[in-house]
From TrEMBL:
One of its GO terms (molecular function) is S-adenosylmethionine-dependent methyltransferase activity. The keyword Methyltransferase applies. Coiled coil: none annotated. GO terms for biological process: methylation. Residues 46-129 form the Methyltransferase small domain. The keyword RNA-binding does not apply. Keywords: Methyltransferase, Transferase. InterPro entries: DNA_methylase_N6_adenine_CS, N5-glutamine_MTase, SAM-dependent_MTases_sf, Small_mtfrase_dom. It comes from the Bacteria. Pfam families: MTS. This is Protein-N(5)-glutamine methyltransferase PrmC, methylates polypeptide chain release factors RF1 and RF2.
């Protein structure tokens, strides 16, 4: 028996045409803010590659590197998400995109470093996922407090962010402060919160390396 696949659809994200279907999370218009912020930061960063965690169909990272020559590595645990991310990269005409299917840490080599990390983890608390019946559970369920995958992304950022790099993490509307507490409570990550921005549908956190100047 062949697996029935839902019909794909397309939407405009920034200037990109993005393909998705019912098996993946539909691109959210507000997340264009994440792409724009990441792109602005990227312009001031040294040479190096870009990493996107929990990339989904790849739209946020694709828009962030649009117009640059940066190599983009996109990681997602979903096979269909990765398939669509590759389609969307090809449609965008970006040949510098590498899509990796696998767990966050397993898909990245231990010695790989990135000057920019974009992270789009699921952040809805498990008890509230029923509020989003049209969304795939795996794409939104962030665990009991909504931060399970957020913490995993922070751990990966801590291991793979280049010394002069930056990260832009997407979280829920009430989760910026818990993220700030987490990076403070776990100094081994070597991260600090530079700035947080709140929107109606979520929040963004800019992270950088914890420097001696920042500690005191």
């Amino acid at each position: 028996m062949t697996e029935k696949r839902t019909q794909s659809r397309r939407t405009v994200f920034g200037h990109l045409e993005i393909e998705y279907d019912d098996d993946v999370l539909e691109p959210r218009p507000w997340t264009e803010h994440q792409s724009r912020w990441a792109a602005a930061l990227l312009g001031g960063l040294p040479a190096g590659d870009v990493l996107e965690l929990c990339a989904g169909v790849g739209h946020i990272g694709l828009l962030a590197v649009s117009g640059s020559s940066r190599h983009l590595v996109q990681v997602d645990a979903g096979a269909r998400q990765c398939e669509l991310a590759e389609i969307n990269a090809a449609r965008a005409g970006n040949r510098s995109v590498e899509v990796r299917h696998g767990d966050l840490e397993a898909a990245i080599e231990p010695d790989e470093k990135f000057v920019l990390v974009i992270a789009d983890p699921p952040w809805v608390v498990s008890a509230r996922t029923d509020d989003h019946p049209d969304d795939p559970l795996s794409a939104i369920d962030g665990g009991r407090d909504g931060l399970d995958l957020v913490r995993s992304c922070l751990d990966v950022i801590g291991r793979h962010l280049a010394p002069a790099g930056a990260a832009v993490l997407q979280v829920g509307p009430e989760q910026s402060e818990p993220v700030a507490r987490y990076v403070t409570d776990w100094p081994h990550l070597g991260l600090r919160v530079v700035e947080s921005r709140s929107y109606e549908d979520g929040a963004l956190v800019h992270l950088a390396r914890l420097t001696q100047d920042a500690t005191g």
